[in-house]
Fold this sequence. Notes:
Blueprint: E1 13-16, H1 20-31, E2 36-40, E3 49-52, H2 56-63, H3 66-70, E4 75-77, E5 79-84, E6 87-92, E7 99-103, H4 104-117, E8 121-124, E9 138-141, H5 148-152, E10 156-158, E11 165-172, H6 178-181, E12 192-197, E13 200-206, E14 211-218, H7 231-241, H8 244-248, E15 253-262, E16 266-268, E17 272-273, E18 276-278, H9 293-313, H10 318-348, H11 354-357, H12 367-381, E19 387-389, E20 394-402, E21 405-413, E22 422-423, E23 426-427, H13 428-434, H14 441-451, H15 457-469, E24 473-475
Parallel strand pairs: 1-2, 1-9, 2-8, 5-12, 9-18
Antiparallel strand pairs: 3-7, 4-7, 5-6, 10-16, 11-14, 11-15, 12-13, 13-14, 17-18, 19-24, 20-21, 22-23
Helix pairs in contact: 1-4, 1-9, 2-9, 9-10, 12-15
Amino acid sequence: MASVTTEIDTNQILVLGGGPAGAAASRLLASWGHRVHLITRPAGEQRLAVSLPSSCAKLFDAIGISETIENAGFIRSTGNTVWWGGDARVEPFAEGARGWQVDLGVLEELLLRDAYRAGVSIERHVIAANHSQLATAFVLDCTGRTGVIAREKGARHYDEGPKTIALAGQWRGRWPAFAEATAGKPSDSTHTVVESYGDGWMWSVPTSADVRHVCAMIDPQRSALARGGHARDVYLAEIAKTSAFRKLLATAELVTGPSGWDASTYAAREYAGDGWLLVGDAGSFIDPLSSAGVKKALASAWLAAIAVHTCLKTPSMREPALRLYAEREREIQRHYAAESRAFLTSAARGHARPFWADRRDEAADDRDSDSVRRAFDELKRSDSLRVAVGPGVRIEARPLVEGIEIVLAPHVVPTEGPAIRYLYGVELVTLLDLAPTVSNVPDLFDNYVRRCQPVSLHDFLLALSTAVARRWLVSQ
Length: 476
């Protein structure tokens, strides 16, 4: 193991790991006037390619990397082509939006360059456990699955369910044949391609006109890997089990790989402590089904930077800031875990095989969505509105992000679940204050818009329906 070669003082922020989370958090903190030192692995290691959804654009703006992303020359994706549990579909992004198909190694180097330009000092070598013992203002663990501080603190919790291995390789081919592989459905070569099959699932993203990364997600104990099979043979055998990928790759050449990664999910018991935070994949790892891994890491980095900035600028806010960060990370992990279980369960209904039986979770059905939908339909049908704030529902000051700091502001505190202030862009404290004073929804909407910033009627009705479904508002 390498030892620390750079002196770190007690006023400096130390960031361990230079992936998207570490680079983004470092850049933000340096741009806000903090001294930041980042330690990351040597360049040149092979990395996965990933798909970034169009919704990442807001995060790029918040972190200040939009121009870097725009000038990088990444392929702009128009959507996804999916074969899932026997259902074939093409999913274009809404309203012509476009995502990004990104080589993760290229993205990391671009973000590290931006961090350096913002004033971050960067050191490249193997990250050792003793780095976390340095006396600094804060240490951010952005080391992903390695989880230097997460392991040291015993903070990581691994799922008890089945394990998943990702086998990924680069293929070169003529992708105009892509249209034939989609059975004539409208698609294009920029798409992320996903297919479930009996013993696992596969996904692929393009990184150039003639190169695609293709990743097989398999159970190591239910494949030839458990019997000592060679990774390449296992990888090709899995592709042969598919329908769409077998056609897609029929005339392509495997030029690199496959390389293997542990893709099993985990979370953290604690996401922040006295002088440390777990950021991005160091805190939790989600199944890549949602294409939200890098987006989640960047969102985590943005909030981590704000939490640390708040702690150092306003020491009295240290406890609320760290609590908000930990609660948000826990909430995001639960959200994506539930989304992943729902995806896996939907595929399991079309594949009567052990891989899917182990991952099926019928409890993944979102019953809250059903109750919100019923409340939404009832509100649209009704001419009147007679509600009161639900029993046990309180309004209390809780932390939230305002600009680049965390402050205390009124929140709705229900009898169950976390405190909440905004839902679908609607400020809930005002909604609960106004709702009992009117007799119909149009008047409530007009009064809300006059007091707060305008929102769409659809989002307003969704927030109101949720408040009714969760009994934050109850009928009189």
